[in-house]
Amino acid sequence: SPPGAHHNVVRANVHGTDRVHNLYEIDKNKLGEGTYGSVCKVIHKVTRQVRAMKTISKATTPDLVRLNQEIDIMTQMDHPNIVRMYETYQDTKNVYIIMELLTGGELFDRITEMGCFTEDDARNLMKQIAGAIFYCHNASIMHRDLKPENFIMQNKKPDSPLKVIDFGLAATFKSGDRKATKAGTPYYVAPNVLASDYNEKCDVWSMGVIQYILLCGFPPFWGDTDAEILDRVRVGEFDFPEPEWDAVSDAAKTVIQQMLMVDETKRLSAEQVVNDPWFKQAGGAAPQLHDKVMGRIKQFQSTSKLKRIALQVMANQLDNDELEEAKNAFLAIDANGDGTLTYEELKAGLEKISVNLPPNFLSFLDQIDVDKSGRIDYSEFVAATMEKKKFTERDRCWAAFRTFDINGDGTITKEELMQVIENPDLRIDNAAQFISEVDSNQDGRVDFEEFMAMMLK
């Protein structure tokens, strides 16, 4: 797996469809219809959480290998501005993907409604887009189809966060790789992609086009036909016509020019975009770091290994409104904007709000870093800062318990744990020990009451 890729400690569940109908109530009204499938709303029968379910027909999907690749990529993604995938199911006819429900509509529709955004609003949206893409590139993933239709607003509020969706054309890459497959959409596609010789900076070009459109309401490269648009893209010439661009700062124009360089070697990387002076300006409220969020981290260190993994399962299942505080704290501490926390960033974040660091700080961080990647991923941070009242609700605990109890007999065995835990280093770390730490009657398995006792401890 590529360096920097996030490992979900718990494998995204892949089940037969009987489980879909056992676990979820399915709303027959479709939320959307795509080329190969449809999306509807579903409600988790135990936790009552509302999700979206994408149903993809195997018969009409041209490339099942590609679909599985997309699911693999989505499973790795763990970032506040990337749509979260919870689990997948399949039967002979369909693949079912359970994802977070986003209700705010496409960024494209917001642009159509607003005409164009203020510079502060555009900056706020672009920071989220650039942060998500920097994270993807660090995880060795290029998206290849960035356009306003592939960003969905989380809710209807004016300051709603936005999320990248649709990794259908995404590809993994190694540093220095060149790609040749043509992918993308005329207005947003990079000239190097048209020439079938490009790297991950094709995403930066698309971001430049999106930023241009957000600030003025029309694209930098246009024409009456696709062929005309593509001719203009190949040449890469554009300008900032009056009167639309008169009020826009030089800093905003400069970063667009640096993103829309035909020569990839001169084009900014996603990391340089995130750290560009225009992006660093304060636009909108900066994420807040709450003392109480950070205070909870200290309680996390004394928990058993199984409990830490159970908390991560729950963190992955939380709804957006429940994640708000932790998300803001995470973004406030993530100094370089790459969507993961280094030990240094977390230490600086704790010192900033004068939390006394425990003397065993490094071993303490090691406990938060459940997948042992050397960095703290978003859901690991959420798990370590979750409020006790959330993780001790019986319904949530039951839903987490069911993740581990594969055969549904009401107990968790070490064999089931071995199947559920994704990271090979963790498995060797002896599933039997995880079980015995919480197995109060020492029968070699954990029942739900023992599991609850562990969560309440």
Low-confidence stretches: 1-7
Radius of gyration: 23 Å
CATH fold-level assignment of the largest domain: Transferase(Phosphotransferase), domain 1
Average pLDDT score:
85
**What is the CATH domain class of the largest domain?**
Mainly Alpha
What is the domain total for the residues?
3
Query: Treating each run of at least 4 consecutive H or I residues as one helix, how many helices?
Result: 22
Task: Say how many strands there are.
Answer: 12
State the CATH superfamily name of the largest domain.
Transferase(Phosphotransferase) domain 1
Helix content: 40-55%
- Ends distance: 36 Å
Q: How is the largest sheet built, in terms of strand order?
A: 1-5-6-4-3-2
What percentage of the residues does DSSP assign to strands (E)? 5-15%
Largest sheet: 6 strands, mixed
What sort of overall outline do the alpha carbons produce when their principal axes are compared? globular
CATH architecture of the largest domain: Orthogonal Bundle
Structural class by sheet pairing and helices: alpha+beta
Binding site for ATP: 54
Subcellular location: Cell membrane; Cell projection, Cilium, Flagellum; Host cell membrane; Parasitophorous vacuole membrane
Main location: membrane
Protein name: Calcium-dependent protein kinase 1
